[in-house]
Write a structure and sequence with these properties.
140 residues, two-stranded antiparallel sheet, mainly alpha
Length: 140
């Protein structure tokens, strides 16, 4: 299963906001520079993250984006589901697209893959990712 750029960059954007959680709002310009993602692309990622209530915007000088909850209360599954489809095959999202679901052994495998992936993403919070980022930053 391949994760899209949208999911990868959106997760990086959320991590960037989380790393600045105690410092205040993060501007798109600063985030774009640190993450090496264009402001234009980030502008496409922000609305779905706001729509599900993961981030909020602060207007005015010194404004930008902040998390709506503590980083330990936001998991990667929430982020990924707001940005892209997380099922490896269409029939998991829409069982009516295939009449073979009840007699298809591969359906069960795809479902197991989805459940395993979702469990991993659900178990990792932004706080966990912050710690991983700090560990990597200290090595380089």
């Amino acid at each position: 299963m391949k994760m899209s750029t949208r999911g990868r960059y959106g997760t990086r954007a959320m991590l960037d906001i989380a790393l600045n959680y105690e410092k205040g709002p993060v501007s798109l310009k600063d985030m774009a520079q640190r993450q090496e993602i264009s402001v234009k692309y980030l502008e496409q990622l922000i609305p779905p993250l706001k729509a599900v209530g993961l981030i909020r915007s602060i207007r005015g000088a010194g404004g930008g984006y902040t998390l709506t909850r503590h980083p330990s209360k936001i998991n990667l599954l929430e982020i990924m589901q707001s940005l892209e489809r997380t099922s490896p095959v269409d029939c998991l999202d829409s069982p009516d697209v295939c009449s073979r679901i009840n007699k298809c052994a591969t359906y069960d495998v795809w479902k197991e893959i989805q459940e395993s992936t979702n469990n991993i993403l659900r178990s990792l919070t932004l706080a966990d990712m912050m710690e991983r980022q700090r560990t990597k930053s200290n090595k380089g």
